[in-house]
């Protein structure tokens, strides 16, 4: 089973996303800020990270910078999410989705990046 790590300080959004991904068949892990996420990543690498930009303690852009600078996590697919669309794309993420988002479009993006929850990884 593939794992999605959701990093968002808004409990309602994280909880709703968690429920959606669990219904789809993904395992879900949750973090509420970037510092917490770094500790969580040390416990095991997920297949995909959904990352909010605006969070306390360490925002999503700083977390993304640290992840991309660490060889252990540099290949981790990241979907950034925020209510405010950034002025320019960031090469550190694979997809950006603006809140409130279309669940169907989000799931299509996830499937494109990592496949279905039980799909075997390519050799």
Short summary:
The chain is of the alpha/beta class and 123 residues long. The protein has four helices and five strands, in the order βαβαβαββα. Residues 3-114 form the Response regulatory domain.
Kindly describe this structure.
It contains four helices and five strands, in the order βαβαβαββα. It has 123 residues and is α/β, with parallel strands linked by helices. The protein is 35% helix and 20% strand. It has one domain: Rossmann fold (3-Layer(aba) Sandwich), CATH 3.40.50. It is globular and about 30 Å long. The longest helix is centred in the first third of the chain and has 14 residues, at 11-24. It has a five-stranded parallel β-sheet. The chain starts with a strand and ends in a 9-residue tail after the last helix. Keywords: DNA-binding, Phosphoprotein, Transcription, Transcription regulation, Two-component regulatory system. Residues 3-114 form the Response regulatory domain. GO terms for molecular function: DNA binding. The modification 4-aspartylphosphate is found at residue 52. Pfam families: Response_reg (PF00072).
Rounded Rg: 13 Å
Query: Strand count, sense and closure of the main sheet?
Result: 5 strands, parallel
Domain count, please report it. Answer: 1
Judging from the principal axes of the Cα atoms, what is the shape?
globular
Superfamily at the CATH H level?
Answer: Response regulator
Which parts are unreliable, with pLDDT below 50 for 5 consecutive residues or more? none
Separation, N- and C-terminal Cα atoms:
16 Å
Lateral arrangement of strands in the main beta sheet: 2-1-3-4-5
Strand content: 15-25%
Structural class: alpha/beta
CATH topology: Rossmann fold
Protein name: Response regulator
GO molecular function, one term: DNA binding
Pfam family, one: Response_reg
InterPro entries: Bact_response_regulator, CheY-like_superfamily, Sig_transdc_resp-reg_receiver
